Amino acid sequence: MTTVHSNVSTRRSSPYSTGGLSEADIDQSTRGPVVFFVGTAIFWLIISTLLGLLASVKLFWPDFLGQTAFLTYGRVQAAFTTTFLYGWASSAAFAVGLWLMARLAQNRLVYGTFLKVAGAFWNLGVAISFLGILAGKSTGYTALELPGFGAPVLFISYALIGSWAVVTFHGRRSRTVYASQWFLLGAFFWFPWIFSVAQGMLIWAPVRGTVQSIVAAWYGSNFFVLWLAPIALAAIYYFLPKVFGRPIRYYYLTSIAFWCYALLAPWIGVSHLTSGPVPAWVSTAGIVALAMLLIPVAIISINIHGTSSARGENQGTTTLAFIRVASIVFTVLFVVASMLSFRNFQEVIQFTYVNSALWMLGVYAFFSMTVFGAAYFFLPRVLNREWRYPSRIGIHFWCSLVGILAIVIALGIAGWTQGVKINNPEISFVEITRATFPWLAMVSLGWVLLLIGHLAFAWNVATLALSRSVSPESERILLSNPPEMKVGAQTT
Amino acid sequence: MKNGLIIVTGAFLTLLFSWAVLILLNADHPSYGRLNPFEDEMTGQLNPMPTTGLAERGLQVYVEMGCVACHTQQVRRPGFGADSERGWGHRQTVARDYVGMEKVQLGNLRVGPDLRNIGDRAIPEAWSSLEWEQYRHLHLYAPRSVVEGSIMPSFSFLYKKQEVKSQPSSNALPLNGVEEGYEIVPTPRAEALVSYLRSLRLEYDLPEAEHLTVEAREKLIEAKEEQNEQE
């Protein structure tokens, strides 16, 4: 056990394992690509937040900016999903993933310029997909709305970025491979797999009939459980021991959790096809997998909540605040999702805003919050500068937290209301719509909060990147290494 | 775990497992992925009819406008929700109902009603003087003029205003308040969209869906009641 933890935070004190490279050296080597990916990710985050806000307003004010084809609800919604998943979340996953990969492999990220070129192509792919959707080139499959001409650009640039991560891993100087690295390797490997399957079987050589719906459900869910979630888990498994200065609790169970997760998670996407025009066993398999997934989720929850229940010296750090929220959401999300997958609940919520609430919970409250926390940790170290306006970090945190809570709760209530009323044939659709209005207005307010939070985030990062000097005192506080882990003390 | 290769191989195999079973197996299955339309032996009619011609172009319009964001195209079995009571279809939709469609737009959110059977649904009585297509055009052009309080966006950009020539066009929308001497007519894309909506019908029966109809459910309930009475 001790060796496993040692590569998380004690390598600095062990010259044999670092090969003479300090964390600062490694961080410097990641600067170009990581800052590039964070910058472009924030750009798309702001765009997608505006689109999300616009789409949410249109749900109770249909004529708002509605006189043109390119701003009709269906297109705005598809553009929102695409810019959020591919522009923001994936770019952010690259930044976090590459930085973590370099640190955990104790290896420099070499030839950063190539990564930036690949990243530029990725952004080009997102941009043409975004414009393509507004111009009416959406494919019509959830999470894969990006048009056929955008996908190859994304795929080629991904091939470069993903292989960079693998090469960095391959050249590692540490002998052990830590849990974060399993999740990172999995994610970097799974994403091209699911993306090419979905492209191939839906766009280039479409399968027939409702097999398309199975492929789309499989892809849409795997985009989260096999691409975004593992990156976020890798970050959580890295930061918690660092911040608390103690190893992951019950770490010996983590490998079981990883393999159970890898085996079961790809199945859960089809669980919501209950009573749909697909073979009945398909949705049953999905529901069973989702229930069984609670085993790895429980282990991971014990790992992360067990580690973070201790009182550590760095309790008040920004990173921890974001990651605490994300950790709680991780557990809540899967427990709620598996409960709601049962048929009695599906009868009510199957085609309602409750699914939108779960989606936001996953991609925002879990994944994005983790990324925010990670960024507040690695950006000052990568840039060797200090956050200049800590109060703005507070604005970002509270706006994001309150905003997403408002959105998820309001969508949940709106969805439940909608589902119950749809199942009562006496109630007309207009009445159903009216009943959801107050909640949908609350969703829009939530989006406004998210927008304020994201602007604060963008401002924080911009001032950090553009500031010139580091004050000696702040360097001591923020750039010093977190406390060393008490190796072996907390393994039971 | 120290070996990166084991992790990558394992990750490959776990995903391969779900892909092979959920997708490959289904895509190649003779009674699912390789289904064909059902031929009615009496009439020689193919059910469902493949979506072709104008309706096929309409499907493209449906996709590009993102209608799927708010409308599903799947009827759940009678007794599970109130789909049949709402008149969305007399039976559950099954895989064969979709084999003629180039893109399947099942959808997962019902901000508006299900559309799988809209082509066979009568228009509201208040508008019974209109043709089915006319009513649909009016609804797409100005949703709130026919359904007060509707949340559907207007698709007025699929229609054009033109000067009335010697006599009004046959496809002009029955609207009040259009400027004197002008009329609103559908563009070819609007015509295609409405033609596609018209093609979404479930009036035929399929052998594999016989037990999923409203009648079958009523019979089942009756049988159960009888059984209870006997006991």
Defining traits:
heterodimer; A: 492 residues; mainly alpha; disordered N terminus; B: 231 residues; two-stranded antiparallel ribbon
Largest sheet of chain A: none
Q: Please report which band the strand proportion of chain B falls in: under 5%, 5-15%, 15-25%, 25-35%, 35-45% or over 45%.
A: 5-15%
Radius of gyration of chain A (CA) equals: 22 Å
- Helicity level of chain A, as a percent range? over 70%
Portion in strands of chain A = under 5%
Number of helices of chain A: 17
Question: N- to C-terminal separation of chain A?
Answer: 11 Å
Structural class of chain B: mainly alpha
Order of helices and strands of chain B: HEEHHHEEHH
What does this molecule look like?
- The complex is a heterodimer of chains A (492) and B (231).
- Chain A has 492 residues and is mostly helical.
- Chain A has helices spanning 2-9, 15-18, 23-58, 73-105, 112-134, 150-170, 179-204, 211-244, 254-264, 280-292, 294-308, 318-340, 343-349, 353-383, 390-422, 429-466, 472-478.
- The longest helix of chain A is centred in the C-terminal third of the chain and has 38 residues, at 429-466.
- In chain A, 59% of the residues are buried.
- Helices cover 34% and strands 6% of the residues of chain B.
- The longest helix of chain B is centred in the N-terminal third of the chain and has 24 residues, at 4-27.
Secondary structure: elements and pairs:
The complex is a heterodimer of chains A (492) and B (231).
Chain A: H1 2-9, H2 15-18, H3 23-58, H4 73-105, H5 112-134, H6 150-170, H7 179-204, H8 211-244, H9 254-264, H10 280-292, H11 294-308, H12 318-340, H13 343-349, H14 353-383, H15 390-422, H16 429-466, H17 472-478
Chain B: H1 4-27, E1 38-39, E2 46-47, H2 53-64, H3 132-141, H4 143-146, E3 159-163, E4 182-186, H5 188-199, H6 214-230
Antiparallel strand pairs in B: 1-2, 3-4
Helix pairs in contact in B: 2-5
